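Quick question about two entries, pasted in order.
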Amino acid sequence: MSVTVETLEKLERKITLSLPVDTISNEVDKRLKRLARQVKVDGFRPGKVPMNIVAQRYGYSVHYEVMNDKVGELFSQAANEAKLRVAGQPRITEKEGAPEGQMLFDAVFEVYPEVKLGELSGLSVEKVTASVDDAAIERTIDILRKQRRTFAQRGLDSAAQDGDRVTIDFEGKIDGEPFQGGKAEDFQFLLGEGQMLQEFENAVRGMKSGESKTFPLNFPADYHGQDVAGKQADFLVTLKKVEASHLPEVTDEMAKSLGVTEGTVEALRGDIRKNLERELKFRLQNRNKQAALDALVKQAELDLPNASVQAEIERMVEGARADLKARGIKDADKAPIPDDIFRPQAEQRVRMGLVVAELVRSHELHATAEQVKAHIEELASGYEKPEEVVRWYYSDMNRLSQVEAIVIENNVTDFILGKAKVSEKAVEFDELMGQG
């Protein structure tokens, strides 16, 4: 077939499709006959329903189905023959003035853009480095100790101090009125660990068992409870019990209780270092990957297909609705969410995807089976039974696809860093790990 492609604007194209009427009618007849052998109509035995009744009941829907199928097939053939990379679904409308025995359709659609990457040697990328120091290992050990601490009740004259576990009754009021979530009995929290607002902890610190205190508290404007955010409340607190915490000593017995095979403190520190280095490696990869990809995308020249951007917006809106639903928001599926909220991020995602895909295609940076396997094994090495984690990844194609995407991005990052002008910047371990 001869295909004429008309350029409308930027990435928008139009193809006129011609379809013989006989092709439609013949296929409709075939499907109705096949349907007649299956449908059930009162008063007729299965397979004995007259064709005129079948056509009367199902003719319109079958004709609509055939039209969609045949026009879709014709468009696909035309796009393939013209070697077009179609972005999104075409808008197909019937055209008037068709020759006798023919039907004409205009298919308007977008194509994927030509992506101009530019010279990678002209890119400037800042690559961060970091290392696991002894202080990071000790902080991790302190966290493990706190997870296993025990508590002993202090004397009645002992004032509550940071590190203690306190049991309190409290009631808060705003303008003299109680509010939801503002009252509790026998409530426990660890003083000085940020479990409560700072003003609340400051009020409880120094109190003794049996004491009561009234104090004002200002809720932050960004407080998660919207009903009280930005407002001032008056709280009455009664301290019922103060318990001092006791952290276990770092011994071989503690190491054994944590499942360390060798059962020694030295082996525990070694395991912690290995786990922190693994996590640090992934954090560095992600940080440097983003820097490399941002530099690549910033230099690239391309037009964005509106269809791809709109599809990404719809995915993000659905994700937002699912998040609202998970939070218990009523009628989350009907909540008005304007597209413009997500448009900048959607455009950036589409731009990133197209640019990365072009670099992968032009430089053969696809993930190999060996790379995927090595990445999965590295992910699994941090678990108690790594072989089960490996099987878990390989048992689902979606999980494998996600790993493959990560490996491709790593290949792209390494390729960019190998070509670009790279400057290294050392950052503190805590700074990098605190970025989430």
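Here is the second entry:
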Amino acid sequence: MKCLVKSIIAGVMIGIGGTVYLSVENKVVGSVLFAIGLFAIVVYGFNLYTGKIGYLVTNFNFKYIKELVITLVGNFIGTFFVGFILRYTRIYSLISEKAKALVDIKLDDNIISILILSFFCGILMYFAVNGYKELKDVGRYIAIFLGVIVFILCGFEHCVANMYYFSVSFSWRLNSFLYLLVMILGNSLGGMLIPLCDKIIKK
């Protein structure tokens, strides 16, 4: 239950980050502000799937896999909640329209493209989260913001952020779930790349 709650809150924070991104005109400013989601998650120790999947390389056991599944479910609940409840606010028409435009671009893309874009996002998320853990002073915060800013400006695909975009634009279809699964796979493979290479190098 503790894991689920921390995962739901992480989903809420990503939803807030996604909301501010949709609320500003400038894409660069939006990407900087979006980072508030990941910043809060690492500071308070919430559970974000893309921040945890990379550590499966060094924690390959049933308990950690179960934690990852719970985290993914919790992230979905949190992002869906934010996307759903915002429809009762005055900002909904603006953000839902922008989210729908984003979602349409994603769903019009092909599976291979989505997988590759998700893969690179996974790399950056591990870089950001592990950078926060390993670096000291201001460097750890720079890692967080750089990871988020770069993945957004590059157009890479983040599965949890997309859970929010699908939810706030009410774009959940069978095709949406298929694309989300591809994003999860890509984020997972990308997130495990650096720790896997590091493990091989240290052998």
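Reply: Residues 174-201 form the longest helix (28 residues). The chain has a mean pLDDT of 96. Hope that helps.
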